[in-house]
Amino acid sequence: MLVALVAIMLLGGSSVSDIERFIQDLDKLVGKRLEEPAARAEAQAAVREMKTIVGEYNSQLKRLPTEIAAKNADETVTDGDFDQSVRALEDARSVAFERLVASREKLRQAIPADQWDATVGAASRK
User: 66 φ, ψ to 5°?
Assistant: First the structure.
């Protein structure tokens, strides 16, 4: 799972929709495969947290083209203004990734080791 997150968030090998699809698959599998109610509840809370993080990051991604277009409309815009937008996006990606890793740790603690591959591993392979 962590490898998938790295590929998605840092290497740009996947789109946000790929992240959302992974989390949806993970949510379904957690609900189906975890029989112990407390573990399922904790895992589902971690998955909801992941959904929130990705949703917030996706919103930032959608705002960026508008911000750049607005800056570009102003003839006094500088390269530094564009660099600032790119840096803000890089910072947002970094923060989102850190939060996803923290959510993954919560998920790791909630899912018994013998069920990890059947849930998280299966969602990663879809």
Answer: -65, -45
